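sorry to bug you again but im stuck and you know this stuff better than me. what follows is a protein written twice so to speak, once as letters and once as structure tokens for the fold. mainly i need to know what kind of three dimensional shape the backbone takes. anything you notice is useful, everything is just below:
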Amino acid sequence: MERPTNKQSTTNAKTKPQGKKKGPKKKKFNFRKLILGSIIATILAIICAMAIYIVVIMNGFKILEMNIDKIETTTESTLIYAQEEGKDAQPKEIAKIYKGENRESVNIKDVPERLKQAFIATEDRRFEQHSGVDFWAIGRALVKDVIHMSAVEGGSTITQQLAKNVFLSSEKTAFRKGTEMSIAFALDEKYTKDEILERYLNRIFFGSNAYGIKAAAKVYFGKSNLNDLEIWEMATLAALPKAPSKYSPLANPDLSKERRGVVLKLMADQGYITEAERAKAAAVDYTPPAVAATSTKDYASYVDYVMNEAEDMYDIDEDELLTKGYRIYTTMNTKAQQIMETTYANPSFFQKDATDGQKIQSAMVIVDNKTGGLMAMIGGRDYKSRGFSRIYSKRQPGSSFKPIAAYGPALESGDYTPYSILDDSQTSFGNGTYSPRNYDRVTHGQVTMLEAVKKSYNLAPVWLLDKMGVNAGINFAKNLGIQLNPTKDRNLAIALGGLTDGVSPLQMATAYSAFANQGSLNKTHAILRITDAQGKEIAAYKAEKKQVIQPKTAYYMTLLLQGVVETGGTGTKAKFNRPVAGKTGSTGLDIKGIEQYDRDVWFVGYTPEWTAAVWEGFDKVDSKHYVTVGSGGTAALFKEIMSKSLDGVPITNFVKPANVPTPTETPTGVTDLAAVYEIDKKSVKLTWTPVGEKTSYNVYRKGSKETDAKLLIQSPTPIVNDSSVFSGETYQYYVVPFSADTNVEGARSNVASVEVPKDDTLPDGTKPSTSPGVSPTPSPGNGMDPTNPTQSPGTKPTPTPTPGNTVKPGGSTNPSPTPSSSPNSSNGPSPTPTPSNKPGNGTPDKPKDGKPDGEQVIVPKTP
């Protein structure tokens, strides 16, 4: 045998155990190929990027060259038309808006360095470093947008903004954005940084019809020389391009100051100003210049509202509106608008100017009930275009808010009607923390809702809201489009219009229109549609109608508010030859010595066709600026403008909705109850004037030792003799009439008091019981007049509310009080009444004690 060689031994040693197959060999990682592939991919990417860059740049240069004259030329005007909804008449042009009217150019060398820095810090911090497009800013904006899942930051440079303003629209597409960037590159190649900034500052829109930085300085600060501007003024101007209408110091001084603070913080962070300069500039309050650079225009208030609505509802910014040649069709009624402006120009409709010459201000809005279309509006006396429009200004509404916060929620609940009984007694609410008073400091006891609204009582609506709960008022207001402060307004003061933030004339007109429209609320709007210059529609109003309250609530509210303008109501000056409903409102002063005058006065009312809200007051109230004419002035404005505007329109009536019952009227309240003690008869004689046919009366009595008044008797006649009185005692009586047909109660009468002379015997001549604490039980033959009412066996009377909280108002049900116990005094016997409220139960027949017919007698039980 051959001896194995070393090679064989080695081979055998390396042989794997049988049964296991040898797998394929792994390929080695080729690092050289990876590097080569990466280099090739990078080169291709660079080539592609360069190609795209060249295409973008070339496209930008091409657009710039073809349209270079646009930087210097004006653009097409936008036209606004009046065309009421549903009208087939030819639209009437009412305004033309365009750029260039108030534009002044300035050389960059005349722009102070701090002013340039304010814009650079706010709009484009890397303006000097980038080439028209700031990719770093774009990346930062993208990261923030992704983090917040929304567009919270933009990356546009000043150069891009100039490119968009001159050459492009506000269309939000990737193609438009790419074109904007390409033009920005071209602009950066063609012009120096100072030339770009100069064109930007001369081109940009600053609101209030001001184009360019120089015009803006004149409008907002009355300064022609930009070097005269202070740091806070520069920051205010730099704050405007983001949203000129919103941050205008003329229109919204608080928002302007807030935005100014942001600009100053950016300037300080970037080292342009010191912290001390920032703090000083941020604290300044804006005061408009003595002579504004704006001018009065026809329909200025309405046109400004249209421009705001186009921006808010259709996302068309103001700058674009003034340059793109749009055609805007609105709901304006030109007749109403002209009458409104003529009336507001007449000083005889307003109180005299203040001692310093300042005019009292006012605002008015008219809304179409059926559509929500704005018929006419005015933002103030001598309103200036793009000025402060008081139709948005929130003021305290006073009593005009009672229908929204108190009466409306009560009617909506179904537990109340216009004739429900409310309590207008002097009461402290919230554990004594809130004690409202009526304007004249007089209380009226139990009153119907109709009377409380008509006379504008204060205690009754607060009492009513207290019964329902504050949430009912807050929710009702919200349904009508008025969002109250959810924490600070959670109190009973809202029943009287005491609000944290107040409400605007526009909000009030919108809310009341639901009362006039059977509970349906339309979205208030001025724009019907918008087309481009060629007539292509680019935006249109879509009707939004919502049933916010029940038709019955709206109808009952209209019945209540119609009473306000009738004789005896607070709004009689608003009445004219059409069905009218409405409510006055005023808020008092808290300035010592002039508390009898007002801070704000209102009238909000409606006809079947239109609703209008009128406010009057001073922008800033102090000891020299307050209202002296009361709410009669606003009611008179309502009548003057509404009556003339609707002249020629067919007169219609308010419509009662189907299946809504007519509310049942309560009996007239007794006002002349008299109580006299007759010594010879030892009884108290009660008399009063009857208040109508088929009316009965619940008579209540309260002794000096009793906490509650108790039902004494139900009488079909206006005469009652109470023989159950005790010597030395004092009694109080009142009467509540109720309808024999419907069982609905009227208001509680006046209270009549009487003092019974002290005597050692009971009224019937017998000696007092030796056990006065024991209530005797009557038995046949005890000498009691059998005609006297007695309590039915097994009947337990229910408690009667105390004065100040006497009645629990209801709708069609009988809300009258019932006795808490037998009217017996604790020291002697007396009769027990029949607790039923129906006049047929327990009412005595014809008297049998010699008294004349119709005179009710009550005698004591004998022990």
